[in-house]
TrEMBL record:
InterPro entries: Nitroreductase-like, ThcOx_dom2. Residues 130-244 form the Cyanobactin oxidase ThcOx second domain. This is Cyanobactin oxidase ThcOx second domain-containing protein. Residues 259-272 have a biased composition (Pro residues). It comes from the Bacteria. Residues 234-283 are annotated as: Disordered.
Amino acid sequence: MFQHGGGTRPQRLLSLIDGALVEEGADGSLTVASRWGDVRVADPGPAVRTLLDRMSLGPVSPDNVLPCGGPERDRALDGVRRVLEDLDGCVVHSLSDGNLGGPVLSVEPVAPWARFTPPLRPRLPAGLVVRMSRYAVVRTSGTLLLAESPLALHRVVLHRSEALRVIGALASPVGPEELAAELDDIAPAVLWEVVAHLTAAGVAVQGRRGPEGGRPLLLEDTDTRLAPWSPHDLLFHSRRRPGRDGRSLAASARTGPGNRPPPRRVPLPGAKPPVRAVVVPPDPGRPLRAAELGALLSRALDQGAPGVMDAVPAVPGPERSLDFYITVNHSSDVERGIYRYSPRGHALLLVNSDEEDTRALLDCARVAGGSGPVPAVLITIAARMPAIPRSVEASPYATALLLTGALQERLRQAAQDLRLAASVLVTGDGETSARALRLDGIAEVPTGDFSAG
């Protein structure tokens, strides 16, 4: 299962991400503690226990900890597979060529829900081509050479020259015959494993040969969601906030997609209730009434609202390019959960009722706000990139950030008029936000956050 090759025999090796620890509980369970959070293994067998202990020390082949054969090996293999699936966001996948020169490359997760599944038979089928992603970059960290893409949940550490030479050969779409001929001094089994790891990690992409004499067809080149993005803007967006760079504000090892809530619409009361005559000291943790939340949102979108600076531009166009996503923590008349604001109906539409996702977003807001109280409401601004107005002076993403900043200022002014505690959050966890808000992270992306209470 874990070894491939012929002649030179490459091996797929596993280890835990930097800083991960394996702790044993009094009941015999194991807990893998990492920067993503804790994952508990309730009933580890001898093979799982040995494997995790060795993975905490460095790369190891799972084959080395399995019994030699028979039903006992099959049972141990099933247990290892289940644990590795639960831990995949904490696992580094390394490739060895079977010699003593160390790994050729390693694939490291940069988000807790990363999933890495290279093919069992890595050789490219005839008719397919492979190329480095247009959004991938190769850089040095100072001590390591890295290949990474803002579209990927993994980065690749290039330990040896063979891996870098393969990347160089993938500057343009190339088929298996041409690739093997160009790199004929690299053992075929190693070559195809390197290609398989690069494509499974997301830094290289596959496609099909075009018609006779035509251009190869790669899905990445025809994905309309990527049309507004330049490579440097998408890389900047993915690294501007924690979440897809090996850091996270949410200590969560959660990997599932979360619950899909039933359709639910929460109408908000009158859009513009009068300002309270009695001044109440602002408190970010005070439960927010639906009327106050409705007034805050409508004033932020209404350029003519009293007290909102006319100098701050309104969100352009009848089909808005920015959306409000509302994570409700404490409210006297709105259930806890994650909603999208519909300005036309002046209502909240339930997006996600999962408690873990709600808590993760609120925890990120608390950390971003200086570890104070959890806000009553978190407002996340998301940009729909295809709808962002085009400008000769700025890229679509730069325009999205300018509009987001203006909208945050309008929210701040509206909150001040309504005597609400408010804060523009300077950072947030982009990957956690995208998943919890059910955004695809390309066509619609989180660009800013705002807390109120």
